Structure formats: C-alpha cells, structure tokens
Amino acid sequence: MSSNKEPKVAYFCMEYGLDKAMRIYAGGLGILAGDILKAAKELNKPMIGIGILWRQGYTKQLIAEDGRPYDSYHNNDYMYKLLDDTGITVTVRIRDEDIICKVWKLQRYDNVPLYLLDTNHKKNANKWITGQLYGWFAEERIAQELILGVGGIKLIRKLGLNIDIYHFNEGHAVFAGIELIREKIKQGQTFDEALAEVRKKIVFTTHTPVKEGNEKHRLDSIRYMGGFRGLPLEQMVKIGGAPFNMTVAGLRLSKIANAVAELHAVTARKMWEHVDNKSPIIAITNGVHHKTWVDQRIREAYDQGKLLWPVHHELKKELIKYIKQKTGVNLSSDKLLIGFARRAAPYKRSDLIFSKSSIIGPYLKEGKIQLVFSGKAHPLDDKGKRIISSLVKMSKKYQHSIVFLEDYNMEIGKKLTRGVDLWLNNPRRPKEASGTSGMKAAMNGVLNMSVLDGWWPEACEDGVNGWQFGDGYQDSDQDKQDEHDLKALYEVLLNKVVPTYYHNRERWEEMMKASIESTYERFSAKRMLKRYYKEIYTF
C-alpha cells in the first residue's frame, strides 16, 4: 500500500463526462467516471484517471427535416486548448505497427489528474484510432481498447507512479490486465503466478445487464490486432473465454467486482453465475457530484427552510426559455412538465407513455401534461433511431405540449434535471443498472416517477418522495410486462401525480423536500467513492 495509508488508484474508463466542452463521453458511463474524478479531488484521494482523447468524440446526433436522426462528426481541435501537454509519448504495438500515443493531462474541472492518450501524432500512419468514441468496426474497437489498456499501463510506468489498485470501469480496459500479466511473466513468473499477483491489484465495475452491452471479440481478431501480448491462445481463453468476453475477463482478472445498485448486484450475480474463477460481485450504488448537478439556489432554499416551489418555478421557466431557444416551442410554466432523457435503447421504453393514445391523448391535446424528451441512439442502432423518430413524430403531432431536444449532452441533462416537475423512468425491470439521472432530479427537488429498477428501489418512499409504478413486476414475455407497466403508469400518473400537482401544491412541496432530504447525501459521488476505498480498494 502507499505511504499515506490509502491505496493509490488508477481509474481506467473509455469515456469521461467532465464538461460539455470536452466531448469525450457518450452517456452515463462517462458521466459516472467524471463525477468520480471530481469526488476524488474534493476528498483529496490518491487517484488518477486514464482515458482517451477522442478527436471527434461521440456522435453529434441531429434531427433531419423528415424527423429521422443522423450522425455528424467534427474534429474538436478546440479541445487541445483545454489540455496540458505532458510532453510524454508512449508506444503501443497494434497489428505489427508501433502506434505513438501523445499524452495530455486534463485537470481544469476540479478533478484529479486525467491522462488522455491520443494517436493523432504526425509519425503515425494511422492517426484515427482515437478518432471516434466507440469505433464502428470490431478491429477498430480492439485497437482503441489496446490504446486504453496497454497504453495506460505504459503511461503509468513512464510517469513512475506506484499504483496500488487498477480500477477498470467496464470491460474496455481489460487489456491493461493482460499487459500487467505480460510484465510479470517477463520478470520470470509463470502465467498462474502472474494472474494471481495481478488479481490482487485489479477491481472491476460491471454495468449493463443487457446481454448485447457486454462486449465480445473473436480471438483470432484479438490475436491479429496484437491483443494477446505474448500469451498463448489457451491462456487468453482462460481469461475471457471463446469468444473473448470483456466482462468475463474483467471478472476473472479482478479480486472483487461491484455492481452499481443493490438490485443490479442481484441481477449481475445471476447473469454471470456460470462463469468460473470470477471475483465476488458486491453492490456499491452509484452517486452523483453535487456541485456539477445540483442547482445552488434550490439547495440554499432547502437549507434555509424556505419554500422550494418559487425557486423551482424559476428553474422551470429557465428550462422553458432554453427549450424555446432550441426548438421554437413555448411550453407553459403553469402546466405539469415531465422529463425523459435516456440513451435510446429498446429496453428503456422511451415511448411507452404514448402506447394508448385514447388515454394519454386528451391530456396532451389540452396541454395539461407536457413532455420534454432527449437522448441519442448509437450510430449503428437502427432500433434506437426508430425510437427517436417516434418521439419526434409525437412532438409534431402535439406541437404545443411535446418537445424533443436533439444531441443530448451534459448541458441538456443539467437543464432537464433541474427544471422539469417530474422525472419519468420506465425501463423493463431488471435491465436498468442504476440510472443516475433520476438521482440528479431528486436532489433538485424534481419528483421521480419510476418502475422499481436501478437505484429507485433503494430510495423510493411511494407517495412521500416520489412515486413507483409496476410493483416490481417482471415477465419473460415482454409484451405482458409492457402491458402491465403501461396500465400502472397511467394509473399513477393520472390518478396520483396529476391531481397532486394541480390541486395539492402543499403536498407537492412536502414531497420535494422529502426527495432532497432522502437522496442528497445517500446518493452522492463522495459517499460512493468512500465506499470504493473502504470496500473494494482495501479488500
């Protein structure tokens, strides 16, 4: 262990959401990573971040005139002005070619040092490995993950850092574990000895319970790209299986793993119960960074015992002004405003609320219920793009009560989780790992209305600090689950939420207070990071 009694941690992640100006994140995984680095700074923890400088970042996803989303990519050269040039380069061998990675340092957002690897170097024939976050093709993705993992370890060596714990946030970084094994073998250890030693220093966070979200690669592709790092085929299979599953590798390379909510831990243990030689999976529920996500005005009103509604109403009007600037639509600050902002994935059921127009239609036509949506689909996810098209279509049908904000980012996320009245969340349980946007809303006094999935089962006091619907119902038949949850959604929304909003403002305000009181500390990034240090870094 390090001399200051706390382990020195190198945190590896493919993406980081620190500020809207740094477009090196796609969604929740990156936002979590950014919040962790900020919390580490506040708590003065011995941690660094390792990531990649994505020159074009994730997709800029806009809506065409026909209502369909399209992807646009731009070189974000302005980002270099926000970075410090370390003067360091490291070399990673990929497909029999030495790739030079320039190293940048980012520390301007009240975060611990974040080192970003960049292949946009004049001596590289292939400068675009770090071009687009989550590359489109399997070999490109493997190359990117080799830059993160192998390049990250080489950078740590070059910096001369004595790292105690390597934290892999998702499976993208597992090549760092293979590189650590290679180092041990080069020093004379056997593979089994090296694996045992390396496992003592790696922890792993698993996220999505959706099968497709757990990345796999063909072993011949990894070997072709140089990912074996000198290990024979049978040893690679022993780590990640065949095909090579990055999550399985993360579980087998680590001494302990964590899921990101209590329910998610139950789901993850069941999901990976067939994997032998894996680390135990505990639950450390995600948290969010207060200074980034909580509006100071609402927090001050809460601390001073003042009425919350006047402050919230100002935040709501600010959001409505922002929406008008973006879309031209002028929503009403006196009518119920519901927010829904998620990655456009089928299991999140973004358009569930529209399933029975005979029920919800009159409320939308009258403007008694207003909805603001945002979200992105992966560039290759046609189903996700159809979901967005469906939301855009509804915004055109109900032009004065529904809006869709294109190119979802941190700025939009902040505006929505502070300014809407109600935060809607309706994934198919138990496929939501955590759902930190709901935490952000709750801390701002925005009431959650959600199925009992992700973090919400730990926080929900139904009718006190928000609402639950669906009673935790699960069914292998998706149509039955959707039908059950839709009925419950309408029941709670129309018979509880709407009457409370319009006819019992005093109770609504009490619920806002309860929402802040029950979530502000319990679901903070600082609380989460303290648990990391206590429960997995020193395990």
| Number of extended strands | 19
Structural class: alpha/beta
- Biggest sheet, spatial arrangement of strands: 5-6-7-2-1-8-9-12-13
Mean pLDDT: 96
Percent helix among the residues?
A: 40-55%
Task: Provide the β-strand percentage band.
Answer: 15-25%
Calculate the terminal CA-CA distance, rounded to whole Å. 12 Å
Total number of helices:
19
* CA-atom Rg in angstroms: 23 Å
Largest β sheet strand count, sense and barrel closure: 9 strands, mixed
Shape type: globular
Ranges with pLDDT <50 over ≥5 residues?
none
What is the strand and helix layout of this fold?
Elements: E1 9-12, H1 28-42, E2 47-52, E3 60-63, E4 69-72, E5 84-94, E6 97-106, E7 114-118, H2 138-159, E8 165-169, H3 174-186, H4 191-199, E9 202-205, E10 216-217, H5 219-225, H6 233-240, E11 244-245, H7 246-253, E12 256-259, H8 262-271, E13 281-283, H9 290-293, H10 296-303, H11 309-327, E14 336-341, H12 357-366, E15 369-374, H13 382-397, E16 402-405, H14 410-419, E17 422-425, H15 436-443, E18 447-450, H16 456-459, E19 466-468, H17 478-503, H18 505-519, H19 525-537
Parallel strand pairs: 1-2, 1-8, 2-7, 8-9, 9-12, 12-13, 14-15, 14-17, 15-16, 17-18, 18-19
Antiparallel strand pairs: 3-4, 5-6, 6-7, 10-11
Helix pairs in contact: 1-19, 2-3, 3-4, 11-14, 14-15
